[in-house]
Amino acid sequence: MRLFRQDILSAQPAKLYRAWMAEFRTPFFRSYMVNDPALLKRVLNERPDDFPKSDRVGAGLRPLLGNSVFLTNGAVWKRQRRIIDPAFEGGRLRDTFPAMWAAGEAANARLAGKAGGAPVEIEEETSHAAADVIFRTLFSIPIDHDIAARVFREFRAYQREQPILNLRAFIAGPRWMPRFYSRETRRTAKVIRGLIGELTEARLREIEAGTAPDDLATKIMTTTDPQTGDRFDLAEMIDQVAIFFLAGHETSASALAWALYLLATHPEWQDRLAEEAQGLTPEFSAVSRLRVARDVFREALRLYPPVPMMVRETTCPEEFRGRAVKTGSQVVLSPWHLHRHERMWDDPDGFDPARWGTENGKTCMRDAYMPFSAGPRVCTGAGFAMVEGPLLLAMILREFRVTPVEGRVPVPVAHLTVRAADGIWLRLDRRGAESGR
Q1: How many CA atoms lie within 13 A of 194 on its CB side?
Q2: Are 9 and 308 in contact (CB under 8 A)?
Q3: 330-333 and 310-313: which strand pairing?
Q4: pLDDT at residue 189, rounded to an integer
Q5: Rounded to the nearest 10 degrees, how much is the dihedral formed by the CA atoms of 274, 279, 282, 284?
Q6: Residue 255 C-alpha from the chain's centroid
Q7: Nearest to 361 by CA among 307, 298, 287
Q8: Cβ(276)–Cβ(293) under 8 Å?
Q9: 191 φ, ψ (degrees, to nearest 5)
Q10: Residue 186 exposed, middle or buried by CB count within 10 Å (0-12, 13-18, 19+)
Q11: Non-local CB neighbours of 161 within 8 Å, separated by 6+ positions
Q12: Quick one: pLDDT band at residue 18, thresholds 50, 70, 90?
């Protein structure tokens, strides 16, 4: 239990990268990791209502996320998605592009002051950039806005404090059972939710006055449930903004940092991406031309999926690959293992963005790739992330070359997302200025 809390990734035996299914027994529950594509399809696509999200993992996030769409199930979750999903439809992505571009320019301005000098901890920089994207697209404010900056600082403290599992993951019990959250976890969650509440209340007043900008927050807060006509109230909106910040900032920051590290260690791909980026223009149509950047970002999501494991729970007796599975069992869906599965992927541990054009890559994209989950519960912001990630990669590498730092190989660990135990350290140089270092 202690090892799982400290580092759930390296605690897994190597044979799981070949297994179609594995059973994990504790005195408190049984869990089944499933890599079999047929079982994944059953759980995520064919019968999702029979496999709701497990509160064993979700309980650790409730201090921050409350009753957000990330943690709910059943009718509550369906209502929330009916209100949220329209804000992320294809046409809305075009509307968010100027804010993403502005955040990318701001990130490059910050990086310019660090190029050519000491090694840079790149996770901190990508966290800053991704948080800037979220605040600009959600509330039309930059990261240096007072409240936005305070949320960002507190969230970094929360992320460092919160393991992917807390004791509640191992011992089931009612909602009132003590959760054993640390004092710092409770403090930072309270501060973050208070600050988000300030932004949300201010936006409600602007909506009532007819002065609200047409951004994601306004869209979500003015959208009605097509079945009931209801909107989110203030408390519900705070829950949803909290998960938008977590899902839209923390996961993107993780993926961007690992992508930059992979490019630093594979300079031939970095050069290809930088060449492609020279033609980048501040127009939404330019995103469709970032083919190399898209494939690199997709490959980074494969090797270092920001959310390494998802947990569902059985609501009735099941049979998995001939084995009886009792009601209340935990079903672990692990992108971390699935994306490197030795029986499905060619060169599963290798960095090869070209794989997505191969038959094996196309097959695995369908059967063994789920960085954003799959089925009805697929992340509503998946399309948003696949615009933001390649765009920011292209903007950064158009201006800078990244190289690894000798002796500082990052070791992935799972906190809220897959991060490096001691950060990801890279050297940055302006393109064309490397020879003068």
Answers
A1: 8
A2: yes
A3: antiparallel
A4: 87
A5: -100
A6: 8
A7: 298
A8: yes
A9: -65, -45
A10: middle
A11: 182, 184, 185, 188
A12: very high
* Global model pTM greater than 0.70: yes
Q: Specify the range with the lowest mean pLDDT, choosing from 1-15, 148-162, 196-210.
A: 1-15
Mean pLDDT, the chain, whole residue set: 89
- CA-CA-CA-CA torsion for 398, 122, 69, 29, nearest 10 degrees? 140
- Residue 59 tokens, joined: 């309980």
Two tokens at 376?
């009805």
Q: What are phi and psi of 329, to 5 degrees?
A: -75, 155
Q: Given a cut of 50, is residue 177 above it in pLDDT?
A: no
Name the residue with tokens 């003015």.
222
Of 288, 228, 278, give the one whose Cα is nearest residue 90: 288
**How confident is the model over 411-433, as pLDDT tens digits?**
898 877 888 989 999 999 999 76
3-state per-residue secondary structure call for the chain: CHHHHHCCCCCCCHHHHCCCEEEEECCCCEEEEECCHHHHHHHHHHCHHHCCECHHHHHHHHHHHCCCCCCCCHHHHHHHHHHHHHHHCHHHHHHHHHHHHHHHHHHHHHHHCCCCCCCEEHHHHHHHHHHHHHHHHHHCCCCCCHHHHHHHHHHHHHHHHCCCCCHHHCCCCCCCCCCCCCHHHHHHHHHHHHHHHHHHHHHHHHHHHCCCCCCHHHHHHHCCCCCCCCCCCHHHHHHHHHHHHHHHHHHHHHHHHHHHHHHHCCHHHHHHHHHHHCCCCCCHHHHHHCHHHHHHHHHHHHHCCCCCCEEEECCCCEEECCEEECCCCEEEECHHHHCCCCCCCCCCCCCCHHHHHCHHHHHHHHHCCCECECHHHCCCCHHHHHHHHHHHHHHHHHHEEEEECCCCCCCEEECCCEEECCCCEEEEEECCCHHHC
6, 154, 157, 254 from 248: Cα distances, Å: 24, 16, 17, 11
Q: Which pairs with CB-CB distance under 8 Å and at least 24 residues apart come from 373-376?
A: 373/44, 373/307, 373/310, 373/333, 374/40, 374/44, 374/45, 375/44, 375/45, 375/48, 376/45, 376/48, 376/81
